[in-house]
Amino acid sequence: MVVITESSLRKASKLQRYSNAFRPFKLFLILGSLASIAFYQQESLLRLRLWDETEKYFGDTPGPYELGSHYHVEISDSSENTLPPGFKTHAYKIDKTKRYDLCAIGAGLSGTVFAERAANYLGQKVLILDSRPHIGGNCYDFVDQKTGIIRNQYGSHLFHTNIERVWKYITGHPKAPKWRRWYHAKFGYVNGDYVPIPVNIQTVNRLMGVDIQTEEEMNAWLKNVQIPCPLSTGCENAEQMAKSRVGEELYKLIFEGYTIKQWGRDPKELNASVTARIPVFSTFDPRYFADKYQALPEDGYTAWFAAMLDHRLIDVVLSTDFFDHRKHLEQVCDKIVYTGPIDTYFASEGMDKLEYRSIIFTEERHYNHPGYILPTPVLNYPGLETNYTRAVEYKHYLHRPSNHTIVVKEVSSAEGDPYYPVPTVRNLKLYNKYQQLANNLEQSGKIQFVGRLANYKYYNMDQAIDNALTMFYKTAPEDKNMDQ
Ligand code: UDP
Q: Ligand 1, closest atom to CA 263?
C-alpha cells in the first residue's frame, strides 16, 4: 500500500499554501520577465528551482490536498478499463487481396516510424499490424471512462531528448499534435520522507543530515563518498556504477532495493548502463532528466501515433498476431519490419529464451477527490518494505483537472508482456546469437529487426525513434534520402 500519512498530507498542505503565496510570482514568470526563479519551503520539505526556457511553462508544486475530504477508494486492475482504439481508420482483419511494399509488425514507436516514413517519404503501400487492440505499443494512453483522466495503460512515459532530428521528427510532421514542455520531477519515499530523485543537494541534505548550499560543497561531498570503479575495467555492473556516483549509503537507500525489486536479481549481475540512466545533480535541480527537450503530447501519445499513421497508404490492423499470418505476409509484403521479441521470431530454432521484465499494475481509483494523492506524478519506493517500485498519479501530467484521481502502482514481474530486456551477461551473450541469425536474414533485404524487443536494447523513447530513423534511412533509396 502507498503510505500517505496524515502528517505527510499536512506537510504537503502547508506546502500548497506556501505555493499559493507565490502565485503573484507566477504572473511575472508568465510575462517572461524572469529567466529563472528559486523558491524555498519553510519546513524544507521541498526546494524546487523552476526554469523558464524557450516556452513560458513551469513545473509546479503539488496540491491542492483535500484534507479530510470524502472520497471513495476502489482497487481494481487495469484490464477493467475500456480500451478505445484511438484511431479512426483501422481494421481487425488483414485484407488478403492486398499486396504491400512494407509490413511493419508492431504499432509501437519503431513500427510507426517505419510505416510513416515509408508512406510519406517513399510513397509506399504499408500494412502495420499489432496483436494488441490498439496502436502506440507501450506508449498507449487513453481517456479513462470514469474519471476523464488521460492515462497510460503500460506505465508512465516521459519524453525527453537531446537528439535534434528526433525532436524535429515528433513535432515537425504536418499532422503532429502539439507537444507541451514538461519537466518531470519525482520524489522517492525514503526513511519515511519524500526526497528528490535523482540525487541532488536536497536529497543529500535530507537523508544525510547535512546542510550543503552550493555546487562546490556538493561536489566535495560526493567526491568524499564516491567509490571509483576499477581503472582497468571501468564500472562493470549496476552496483559499481551507482556507488561510483553516490557512494555506499545513498546506494543502499535509493538504488539497491529498487534495483532488486525492478530486476529480480542482485545489482551486481546487471550491466552498469542500468543505473547509469539516472543522473546525479550537484545542484538543487529537481528534474529527472537533464535533456534539452522534455515534453508530453498535449492530447496524449495515442493521438500522436494516430496522426503519424493517418495516411491513405497505411492500413492499420489490430488484434492480429503476426505469427498466425506469417506465411501469407511473407508472400504479400515486399519487406517486413519486425519489432517484436527477437527470440519469439526465432522460436523454431530451439535456442534458450531471453529474459524480459514485465510490470503488474494495480490501480486505486479515488472518486470525488479533486486534489492529488501523491506529491509528484511518480513516487518511487526504493525500499524493500514494499513490493512495488513506484506509484503514478496521471492527473498530475499537464495539470489536467478532474474531480477524481487514479493512482497506479507498479510491481515488476518476470511473467507477462515483455517491457524491459534484462541486461545480464547471460542475456547479452545469448542475444548476440539471435542477432547473428537476424543479420543473416537481413542480408536478403526482405526483413529488418528494429526496436527495444527486436534489438534487445533498453532504448528510451527518443533512442527508439532515432534507431528506427537510422535503420529506415539505411535502406531507403539513395536519391530520395534527403531529409535525414
Ligand atoms: N533506479 C533506482 N532507484 C530509483 C530509480 C531508478 O535504483 O529510485 C535504478 C533501477 O535500477 C532502475 C534504473 O535505475 O531500473 C533505471 O531507472 P529508470 O527510472 O530509468 O527506469 P524506467 O523508467 O525505464 O523503468
A: 15
Pick the atom of ligand 1 nearest to 274's CA: 13
**What is the whole-number distance in angstroms between the Cα of residue 258 and the centre of ligand 1?**
7
Q: Considering only CA atoms, which residue is closest to atom 2 of ligand 1? A: 255
* Per-residue model confidence as pLDDT tens digits over 327-380: 999 999 999 999 999 999 999 999 999 999 999 998 888 888 888 999 999 999
How far is it, in rounded angstroms, from Cα 272 to Cα 145? 41
For residue 262, the ligand 1 atom closest to its alpha carbon is 15
Q: What is the CATH architecture of 97-141+295-352+425-480? A: 3-Layer(aba) Sandwich (3.40)
User: What is the total residue count of the chain?
Assistant: 484
Give distance in angstroms: CA of 293 to centre of ligand 1. Answer: 20
Residues of each domain in the chain carrying CATH 3.40.50.720: 97-141+295-352+425-480
Give the tens place of pLDDT for each residue, 12-60: 434 443 343 334 334 433 333 333 323 333 222 333 333 323 322 223 3
Q: How far apart are the first and last CA of the chain?
A: 48
Q: Report CA torsion sign: 101, 105, 106, 109.
A: negative
Ligand 1 centroid from CA 274, angstroms:
7
Specify the pTM: 0.85
